[in-house]
């Protein structure tokens, strides 16, 4: 794999350096967002590499293609953090950084010799984002947790299901590690906010801050009116399958070719256009369906009528007809539709990236899009330890003999 030019950056975070002590999903996802916008992210991996490199279908000798995107725009350094010499190297790297992001269990950073005091001594004003299952304190602090646990205790898993009367199967998973990713997103947002407080042009206080991001709380914060409704009315929001409990019609409807199409016709003008397209303009005047409240009350019959119409058409036919009628709708995309979608392609949200490990790989683009200073995919995710010598030489200041000794003793790889 040719060495990328790590000095050529772009994006609004160019000049920012972040140290990632992360593994699996949450911290690496947050640091990737920062790297995409131009930050120099140094990722420290344990010997053998981040375990997530082996998640999913793999290419022999290269690992999982997801790592091409998950680790992109980062520099990888392998250190055995059980060795005190590795901790000293981490502190020297910290001395060059603006922020650190990690997702160890609470207290683990301090047990490794990287407590707040030592980090602050190495880099006054350092911002530290700590991601954990339940947070750095509280009665659940020491309980083990992954993203799925955060999704369950945060209320999401209960709602990702059909109504109880329709299924006795377990609540389904969203399909991706959404709890981890939301926590990583909050950590990235918190890092930028803390750096603004530290460095803003007028009134920056120069202080570092420690951010406490819990998977459970990150999910709970996304749960809309679930908690306020319980507090006000004592009602427990229930799963609604593909519907929205407070608006109708808004669901997925079958097509003649076995696909699903999402239709959101829950305003009066849109509902009138939908019923006209169905050849049933009378439905817009039917007392059962006049106004959103009535439609929600009679949603079973309404969805039956729409489904009986939708199943007479292919997904592609419906997609075209509904778009022309200005009714919010879309086919339920798989990876195949996403990869060829002209909107995603035109905005750079589906990009072809040449990866020496995997060949031509499709990556999701960069969010947010900053038109006048966009970030870019500078290089795909490197192999574990690909930048070890470069970082130890250029950032830590070690010479070739010192680096060779660390490799010989298993401290670095």
Automatic annotation (TrEMBL):
Molecular functions per Gene Ontology: CoA-transferase activity
Superkingdom, taxonomy of origin: Bacteria
Pfam families xref list: CoA_transf_3
Matching InterPro entries: CoA-transferase_III_domain, CoA-Trfase_fam_III, CoA-Trfase_III_dom3_sf, CoA-Trfase_III_dom_1_sf
Keywords: Transferase
Annotated protein name in UniProt: L-carnitine dehydratase/bile acid-inducible protein F
Species of provenance: Methylobacterium nodulans (strain LMG 21967 / CNCM I-2342 / ORS 2060)
Organism lineage string: Bacteria, Pseudomonadati, Pseudomonadota, Alphaproteobacteria, Hyphomicrobiales
């Amino acid at each position: 794999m040719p060495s990328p030019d790590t000095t050529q950056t772009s994006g609004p975070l160019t000049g920012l350096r972040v140290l990632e002590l992360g593994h699996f999903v949450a911290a690496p996802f947050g640091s990737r967002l920062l790297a995409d916008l131009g930050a120099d992210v140094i990722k420290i991996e344990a010997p053998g590499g981040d375990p997530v490199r082996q998640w999913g279908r793999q290419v022999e000798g290269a690992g999982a293609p997801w790592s091409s995107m998950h680790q992109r725009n980062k520099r990888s350094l392998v250190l055995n953090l059980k060795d005190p010499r590795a901790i000293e190297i981490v502190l020297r790297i910290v001395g060059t950084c603006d922020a650190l992001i990690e997702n160890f269990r609470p207290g683990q950073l301090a047990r490794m010799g990287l407590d707040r005091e030592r980090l602050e001594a190495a880099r006054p004003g350092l911002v530290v984002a700590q991601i954990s299952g339940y947070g750095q304190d509280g009665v659940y602090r020491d309980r083990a947790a992954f993203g799925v646990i955060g999704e369950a205790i945060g209320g999401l898993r209960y709602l990702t299901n059909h109504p109880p009367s329709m299924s006795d199967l377990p609540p389904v998973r969203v399909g991706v590690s959404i709890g981890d990713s939301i926590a990583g997103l909050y950590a990235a947002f918190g890092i930028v906010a803390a750096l603004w407080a530290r460095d803003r042009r007028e009134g920056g206080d120069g202080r570092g801050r420690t951010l406490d991001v819990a998977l459970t709380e990150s999910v709970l914060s996304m749960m809309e009116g679930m908690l306020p409704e319980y507090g006000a009315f004592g009602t427990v929001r229930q799963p609604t399958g593909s519907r929205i409990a407070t608006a109708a019609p808004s669901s997925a409807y079958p097509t003649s070719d076995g696909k699903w199409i999402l239709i959101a016709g829950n305003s009066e003008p849109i509902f009138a256009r939908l019923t006209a397209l169905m050849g049933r303009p009378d439905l817009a005047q039917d007392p059962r369906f006049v106004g959103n409240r009535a439609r929600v009350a009679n949603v079973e019959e309404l969805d039956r009528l729409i489904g009986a119409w939708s199943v007479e058409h292919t997904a592609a036919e419906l997609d075209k007809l509904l778009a022309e009628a200005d009714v919010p709708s879309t086919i339920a995309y798989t990876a195949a539709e996403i990869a060829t979608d002209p909107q995603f392609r035109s905005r750079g949200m589906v990009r072809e990236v040449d990866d020496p490990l995997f060949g031509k790989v499709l990556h999701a683009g960069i969010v947010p899009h900053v038109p006048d200073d966009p970030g870019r995919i500078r290089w795909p995710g490197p192999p574990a330890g690909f930048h070890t010598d470069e970082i130890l030489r250029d950032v830590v200041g070690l010479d070739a003999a010192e680096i060779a000794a660390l490799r010989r003793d298993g401290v670095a790889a």
